[in-house]
Design a protein that fits this description.
Endonuclease, Chain A; seven-stranded mixed sheet
Length: about 150
């Protein structure tokens, strides 16, 4: 990462340190069905905005989460999505799946809800089905918002 991504670098380092130390600032949201349930609860509690940075669009995951995405959009939440530049080159139909997406460098996958709650992937190798951690720590969420703007 270049100097232009200072907040993103700081966020990635902080998240990595919190995950490796087991710091309770990042709390596990679960994996598999437990994670899907947690995402449903987070979506229902979200009032204004949903920001997501993803390295790629995975149609099978998008289909599995379609009911949440539809509910989010039908409630009029402000949605912002960034997909990686690499993925845009590999998937020329990307904007067909998400016409409002932005394309840019993705150094850390994350979701920011209402600019008050952060979701990041769990550490690599933790679970086959994937896991996620969440935080409402104001300093960490503010750093995530700044990093989102860099993407």
């Amino acid at each position: 990462m270049t100097r232009a991504f200072a907040d993103t670098r700081r966020l990635a380092e902080r998240v990595r340190a919190l995950l490796s130390s087991g710091d309770p600032v990042l709390r596990p949201l679960g994996e598999g069905r437990e994670l899907a349930r947690a995402f449903g609860e987070l979506e229902a509690a979200t009032e204004r905005s949903f920001w997501r940075v993803a390295d790629r669009h995975v149609p099978s995951i998008a289909r599995a989460m379609d009911h949440l995405n539809h509910r989010t959009r039908s409630r009029g939440l402000h949605e912002r999505v960034v997909f990686s530049t690499r993925h845009a080159h590999e998937s020329p139909l990307l904007t067909s799946f998400d016409s409002g997406c932005r394309i840019g460098p993705v150094h850390l996958k994350m979701i920011v809800l209402d600019e008050r709650y952060l979701v990041v992937p769990g550490p690599d190798g933790v679970a086959v089905s994937g896991s996620a951690y969440g935080s409402d720590d104001p300093d960490l969420v503010a750093l995530a918002c700044a990093a989102f703007e860099e993407a």
